[in-house]
């Protein structure tokens, strides 16, 4: 006798997976109608039973963002497309509603669907169709065949649209006239049905600040068009009258903030629309909105900002006398924004003779403005006051030259009589010659030690001593454990830390491999997670983490202050960046511009931006993002206050006191120099762990910030390499 036994049924997880498969893996499967098949990117509704009466709506609005195509057919109960029904699908590109009962399309149906390119409403019951739902869309195809349109002025725009977009053979469009006869749409003639036209009384409006002006807009068309004024961002008080023809716009007490603004008049009827624009130019007196004490960057700079229209003439005064500009002292305008000018008075290596009061006078035909600032570049030699900058924060003095005397001569200011200093100059010459002799002697001794003290290029550590390492290296290594000055110890006291760049722990000191994941590089007792290099591992953009995408910054959020220097790609500016950090309204940043607009330069620009976005380390210059709105292309980096390491080391070397004419800055100690080297080494170890080689590592490409913080920058020559590639010297 055969017995039946019930087999175990599928588990809940399998049942849920089967349901997802049947419903087409729609993210909100419970919201997909029975007549439709839904996926994450497409909705397909072709089943006439039970049918749908409105557009499918996702349960969560975010689920519709990735839908790019909606296809609806055989839905006799679908009679309208209402406001916001399609608005859930902001990424929609293709919309098809065919063989259905569609009779009405709302004027605001596609307000949120800016990506729509293709619309097919064929074989429906449309008798009329307004242009307003489609006027803001950049459609490539609008198919409306086999709809019972009534011949009227309201569908005249369809005729105009297809005359410009398509050939007459593309679509056979018809309408039904008053005699119930079919007429080809291209042959339809409706009296008093024309496109509107608008004309302005003045297309270049000029007005003085504080005055009032009236602009007129004359319109024609049938039916008579509705008129509106587009005055977005207009600050001045204004009022309009659109009930008469011509329509008028009166601007009262015009503000200088409206200079350069565009004002538009729009005429619209059921056939179409026309828009004309005029530019508003406001003349106003100069206003110096910003001036600041000089700052030492690439050159000494007294930054300022001046507003005025027409462009004001600028004149500087030094201690009340006219300052005649030269190649050493000159005014530079870095950024022009409408009627606002950002620049600085640039001084090339000023001395104590240039200290004093500087006054800027800005003048044009409508008035003038002046502001004064006190400048102190260098203390008088021998007065005992020391350098003007605090050596504890590792600032450096700009090397002086004869600019002070030249400036005073050009400004008719009496210079100090140098004849009284002949004896002092003679003593200085003897001191310099003596120091030079000592340096030469020390150099010869050093060369002798290097010649006879070194035996091989590489060595191995055996029984506490370093074999194959020269005498100088052994002395240097033996001194490290005795140096406790400055930052935390650079070299470990462990036996395995004889090399200052030793960073791989061995034996029992190695951390557990479970910490930090499998893709971690051990540096000392710290692990650095490896960021996947998209070029090295072949990962597509869709597989990258969202936080590795290049951040785009709006151009209006960047305000350039002054020029810092010039590199291989282009000029570098100090700038203020708004809305970059939530906790700060604005921060100082360094902005690098692309001067070469060629395709290769742009490719290098985008490659470097992607590279920098993926490189995130405490000793790599922080990269905030790019600005690609127009030219030039811009990269935004963090601002390192003390500039490049090359100048910083020169300013704090043994001979810095001679270069600064007695104002001796703080000399870096051995501990501090080791701290600098350790930071650079840490950054390079991180680059190697990410499979990148800098290829241009030099002190000029390292930057110094607050508290002796050093970071590696300028990746213009960087390339990604395989981990098996050799590093060439």
From TrEMBL:
Organism expressing this protein natively = Dicrurus megarhynchus
Q: Where is the active site?
A: 696
Designated name of the protein: Tyrosine-protein kinase receptor
Q: Which Gene3D superfamilies match?
A: Immunoglobulins, Phosphorylase Kinase, domain 1, Ribonuclease Inhibitor, Transferase(Phosphotransferase) domain 1
Enumerate the transmembrane spans.
Answer: 427-450
Highest taxon of source: Eukaryota
GO BP terms: namely:
cell differentiation; cellular response to brain-derived neurotrophic factor stimulus; nervous system development; positive regulation of neuron projection development; positive regulation of phosphatidylinositol 3-kinase/protein kinase B signal transduction; trans-synaptic signaling by neuropeptide, modulating synaptic transmission
Q: What is its EC number?
A: 2.7.10.1
Record's subcellular location: Membrane
Task: Tell me which UniProt keywords the record has, alphabetically.
Answer: ATP-binding, Developmental protein, Differentiation, Disulfide bond, Glycoprotein, Immunoglobulin domain, Kinase, Leucine-rich repeat, Membrane, Neurogenesis, Nucleotide-binding, Phosphoprotein, Receptor, Repeat, Signal, Transferase, Transmembrane, Transmembrane helix, Tyrosine-protein kinase
Q: Name one GO cellular component term.
A: plasma membrane
Enumerate the InterPro entries for this protein. Answer: Ig-like_dom, Ig-like_dom_sf, Ig-like_fold, Ig_I-set, Ig_sub, Ig_sub2, Kinase-like_dom_sf, Leu-rich_rpt
Specify which residues bind ATP according to the UniProt entry for this protein.
564-572, 592
CDD domains linked: IgI_TrkB_d5
Tell me which family the UniProt entry assigns to this protein.
Belongs to the protein kinase superfamily. Tyr protein kinase family. Insulin receptor subfamily.
Glycoprotein as a keyword of this entry, yes or no, is yes
* Renumbered residue ranges of the record's region Disordered: 400-419, 488-518
- Identify which top EC class this enzyme belongs to: transferase
Catalytic activity, as annotated: L-tyrosyl-[protein] + ATP = O-phospho-L-tyrosyl-[protein] + ADP + H(+)
Q: What broad class describes the main subcellular location of this protein?
A: membrane
Question: What is the membrane topology listed in the Swiss-Prot or TrEMBL record?
Answer: Single-pass type I membrane protein
* Record's keyword annotation contains Phosphoprotein: yes
């Amino acid at each position: 006798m055969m017995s039946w036994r019930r087999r175990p049924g599928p588990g809940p997880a399998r049942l849920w997976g089967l349901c997802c498969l049947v419903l087409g893996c729609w993210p909100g499967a419970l919201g997909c109608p029975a007549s439709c098949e839904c996926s994450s990117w497409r909705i397909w509704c072709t089943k006439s039973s039970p049918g749908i009466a409105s557009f499918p709506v996702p349960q969560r609005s975010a689920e519709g963002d990735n839908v790019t195509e909606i296809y609806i057919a055989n839905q006799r109960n679908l009679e309208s497309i209402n406001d916001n029904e399609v608005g859930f699908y902001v990424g929609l590109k293709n919309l098809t509603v065919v063989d259905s009962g569609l009779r009405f399309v709302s004027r605001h149906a596609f307000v949120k669907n800016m990506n729509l390119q293709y619309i097919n409403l064929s074989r429906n019951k449309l008798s009329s169709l307004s242009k307003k739902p489609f006027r803001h869309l950049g459609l490539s195809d609008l198919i409306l065949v086999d709809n019972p349109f009534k011949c009227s002025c309201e569908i005249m725009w369809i005729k105009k649209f297809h005359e410009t977009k398509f050939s007459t053979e593309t679509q056979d469009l018809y309408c039904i006239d008053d005699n119930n006869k079919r007429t080809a749409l291209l042959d339809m003639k409706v009296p008093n049905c024309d496109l509107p036209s608008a004309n302005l009384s003045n297309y270049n409006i000029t007005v003085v600040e504080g005055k009032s002006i009236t602009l007129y807009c004359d319109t024609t068309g049938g039916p008579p068009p509705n008129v509106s004024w587009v005055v977005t961002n207009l600050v001045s008080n204004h009022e309009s009258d659109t009930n008469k023809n011509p329509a008028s716009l009166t601007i009262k007490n015009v503000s200088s903030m409206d200079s350069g603004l565009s004002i538009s008049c729009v005429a619209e009827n059921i056939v179409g629309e026309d828009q004309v624009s005029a530019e508003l130019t406001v003349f106003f007196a100069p206003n110096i909105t910003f001036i600041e004490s000089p700052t030492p960057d690439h050159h000494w700079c007294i930054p300022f900002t001046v507003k005025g229209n027409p462009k004001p003439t600028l004149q500087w005064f030094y201690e009340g006398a006219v300052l005649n500009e030269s190649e050493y002292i000159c005014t530079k305008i870095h950024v022009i924004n409408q009627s606002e000018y950002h620049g600085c008075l640039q001084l090339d290596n000023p001395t104590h003779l240039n200290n004093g009061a500087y006054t800027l006078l800005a003048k044009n035909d409508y008035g003038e403005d002046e502001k004064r600032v006190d400048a102190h570049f260098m203390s008088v030699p021998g007065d005992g006051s020391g350098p003007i900058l605090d050596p504890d924060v590792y600032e450096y003095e700009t090397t002086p030259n004869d600019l002070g005397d030249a400036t005073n001569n050009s400004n008719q200011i009496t210079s100090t009589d140098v004849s009284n200093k002949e004896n002092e100059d003679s003593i200085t010459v003897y001191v310099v010659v003596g120091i030079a002799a000592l340096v030469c002697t020390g150099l010869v001794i050093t060369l002798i030690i290097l010649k006879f003290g070194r035996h091989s290029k590489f060595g191995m550590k055996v029984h506490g001593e370093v074999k194959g390492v020269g005498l100088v290296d052994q002395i240097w290594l033996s001194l490290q454990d005795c140096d406790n000055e400055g930052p935390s110890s650079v070299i470990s006291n462990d036996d395995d830390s004889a090399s200052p760049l030793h960073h791989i722990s061995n034996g029992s000191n190695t951390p557990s491999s479970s910490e930090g994941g499998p893709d971690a590089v051990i540096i000392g007792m710290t692990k650095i997670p490896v960021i996947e290099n998209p070029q090295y591992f072949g990962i597509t953009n869709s597989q990258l983490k969202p936080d590795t995408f290049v951040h785009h910054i709006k151009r209006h959020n960047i305000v350039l202050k002054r020029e810092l220097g010039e590199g291989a790609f282009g000029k570098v500016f100090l700038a203020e960046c708004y809305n970059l950090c939530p906790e700060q309204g604005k921060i100082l940043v360094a902005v690098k511009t692309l001067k070469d607009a060629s395709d290769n330069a742009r490719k290098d620009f985008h490659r470097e931006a992607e590279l920098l976005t993926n490189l995130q380390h405490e000793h790599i210059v922080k990269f905030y993002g790019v600005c690609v709105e127009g030219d030039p292309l811009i990269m935004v980096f963090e601002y390192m206050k003390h500039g490049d390491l090359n100048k910083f080391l020169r300013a704090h070397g043994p001979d810095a006191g001679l270069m600064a004419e007695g104002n001796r800055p703080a000399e870096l100690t051995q501990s501090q120099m080791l701290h600098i080297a350790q930071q650079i080494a840490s950054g390079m170890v991180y680059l190697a762990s990410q499979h990148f080689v800098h290829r241009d590592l030099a002190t000029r490409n390292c930057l110094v910030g607050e508290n002796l913080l050093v970071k590696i920058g300028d990746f213009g020559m960087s390339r990604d390499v395989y981990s098996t590639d050799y590093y060439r010297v």
